[in-house]
Design brief:
The structure is a single chain. The chain contains 13 helices and 5 strands. 30% of the residues are buried. α2 (19-39) runs antiparallel to α3 (50-60) and α5 (96-108) runs antiparallel to α6. 66% of the residues lie in helices and 9% in strands. It is rod-shaped. It has helices at 7-16, 19-39, 50-60, 70-87, 96-108, 111-131, 137-221, 223-248, 257-261, 271-282, 299-320, 353-365, 390-395, and strands spanning 285-291, 324-331, 335-342, 369-374, 380-387. The protein has a 5-stranded mixed sheet.
Length: 396
Amino acid sequence: MPPPPWFAPAVTRLRTANPYVVDAALAAVVLFAASLQWIFPDEGEHRLTWQGWLLAAATAVPLVWRRRAPFATACAVSAATPAMAWYHAPPPDVVYAGLVVLYTVAAEGKVWQRRAMLTGWVLGVVLTMQHKQEPLPFEYAFQLLSVAGAYGFGMLARIQRAYTAALVDRARRLERERAADTARAIAQERARIARDMHDILAHAVSLMVVQAEAGPVVVRSDPARAEAVFDTIAGTGRDAMAQLRRILGVLKEERGDVEARRLPQPGVAALPGLVRQVTETTGLHVELLAEGEPRPLPADTEVAAYRIVQEALTNTVKHAYASSATVALDWTEDELTLSVTDDGRGPSGPDGGHGLIGIRERASACGGSARAGRGPRGGFRVLVRLPADDRQAAHG
């Protein structure tokens, strides 16, 4: 049977109320309950006396501080209860204050306090019942079960509170982990966007610089070729702007037609166009070779393959002073091997600068690997291995 609708709000208000007010009301109820046996005795000679009422009050009043000092309150009640029981004859039928402090110590006290209080109350019940004339067996059982029940309910409350605290701590820990995961994802996405922007700008600016340097040479001797050079510069700039808009569009919540104008990121299929663009705009002769059967790649691997080749060719144009380069694709069942080899000179630094660092980061992010160094026939080579299926990319 479900609890009535008013039960849950009442429990919530009780838990959030001032503890001194709640415990003072509890002490008043316990004092009233302890006085009933003497106010309405079964036998006429056991009327309530002021001494008996003071002893009953001594068991109830300490309950006001039961949550502030549970063990001290239990000791005070434990001392006053036998005195009240021995002063009156017969002893009280139910030790109300004792049940409250047993519950409180079981729920709030330390291990030794709980054990000491339970042992003391069990012995106290036995000794007090011995003081009563001709106690019946069910009276022993009732008193002992009352003590055990109060202690048991206190332990259940303690376990429930610990369980709730563990759930709250786990929820907070999961929230912190979720926030950390979100922060890492944001950082990774920003790093990816930064790499893409670096590759696009470096490639476009390198091609534009090469063409701009050639422009003054041919503007007087070959105006038609000079016009083609300037058209190439403009086309390269427009292509770079389009790619930048496509990347920056990810950072904005755009709708409608703008969303429809976004184009997919370039992949392996766009490499022939990249090779042709570099050859036509820089004078560097670039050859594209492919072996094996092409197969679909994960989306991030597709983009990484294109950007790696783009960055490698950009480095060749800017730093290698090469006359030719070869882009080779070797398809196998498990991976795609990319190599960009030129006949120029390699980087002067030990790690190859930001370009090669970016290539290694892109390959590693897809579960692959990258290395760079002298080519088999001289020059410089960038060799990258990328997984060709989603499972390897995920486990990499």
